[in-house]
Write a structure and sequence with these properties.
alpha/beta, seven-stranded mixed sheet, 12 helices
Length: 281
């Protein structure tokens, strides 16, 4: 058992040491400005991006945006919302997104850091908010993003509500961001939590799910670490009314979390009611 524990510890260290250190200066406004027109055209044509309610987001100062999450390791909802936010508020407004360690570590995805993507942990989130930035988080993480496609319109954080404490400590409002369509970018069959435990990646890489999915061009795939082509699903996003700093201060974590989930689910239900067919929208 000692030898196994030492081996697991070594592997865990090798994985964690490859996670890029969060550096807010890696966000490159000039790079975003150059890429934004072409990427927004791609999002508009391929994902038929429909983003509503951006005027509900406070125009300045630090804010915590909390979204439901879909689409696996290639989440089109994050892609679309990031482009919409930068287009609406301008690339100069500091804006960061939290992502799983493995996503920010994957080869070829260095451009994500130029758009403001940093590894998801409390220290990085606090650093971003203290800098005065807008921050987008997905509390559901890999639990929600790999849910079966037939649960695509369910908001489920898996009981995670640390974001409430984050907002309270930073003294910032919470803005819920509801989205639909992302979970139709592939056919997700199973979260694969049992597989994550079997392979011990839950301990080695903080990866609680090894999903089983159907996606082009591979067909049946186990895990979502191999690049794939997302289906051209229509992405619709609606910003909900903010939850004020006063409310966050006056209410406990459970009450605020329940309110966020209720607002997100109501927004998802409204957007889902407009869809006639999966993928096509």
């Amino acid at each position: 058992m000692t030898a196994l524990g030492d081996a697991l510890g070594w592997v865990k260290h090798q994985v964690s040491s490859r996670v890029p250190e969060a550096n807010l200066d890696q966000r490159d406004a000039d790079y975003i400005r150059e890429q934004l027109p072409g990427l927004w055209l791609l999002a508009s044509l391929y994902f038929r991006a429909d983003v509503r309610g951006l005027d509900r987001i406070p125009a300045q100062g630090p804010i915590l945006m909390v979204g439901n999450h879909s689409g696996g390791n290639l989440p089109p909802d994050t892609f679309v919302f990031t482009l919409a936010f930068c287009s609406y508020f301008g690339v100069e407004r500091p804006f960061y997104q939290l992502a799983h360690n493995l996503v920010v570590s994957m080869p070829g995805l260095g451009s994500l850091r130029k758009f403001g993507t940093v590894a998801a942990n409390h220290d990085n989130a606090t650093m971003a908010l203290k800098s005065g930035a807008a921050l987008l988080v997905y509390p559901g993480g890999d639990y929600e993003v790999f849910r079966p496609s037939w649960k695509r319109h369910e908001v489920d954080f898996g009981g995670r509500k640390g974001y409430v404490r984050l907002a309270r400590e930073a003294g910032v409002p919470i803005v819920p961001i509801a989205s639909v369509g992302g979970q139709e970018a592939a056919l997700f069959l199973d979260r694969g939590q049992w597989l994550a435990k079997l392979l011990m990646v839950d301990k080695l890489a903080r990866l609680k799910s090894v999903p089983i999915l159907l996606a082009p061009p591979w067909g049946l795939a186990v895990s979502d670490m191999v690049p794939r082509l997302p289906l051209p699903t229509k992405i619709a996003i609606e910003v909900q009314e903010p939850i004020s700093i006063e409310d966050i201060t006056d209410k406990d974590d459970d009450a605020i979390n329940d309110e966020v989930l209720a607002r997100l689910q109501a927004g998802v239900d409204r957007l889902a009611a407009e869809r006639r067919f999966p993928v096509l929208g």
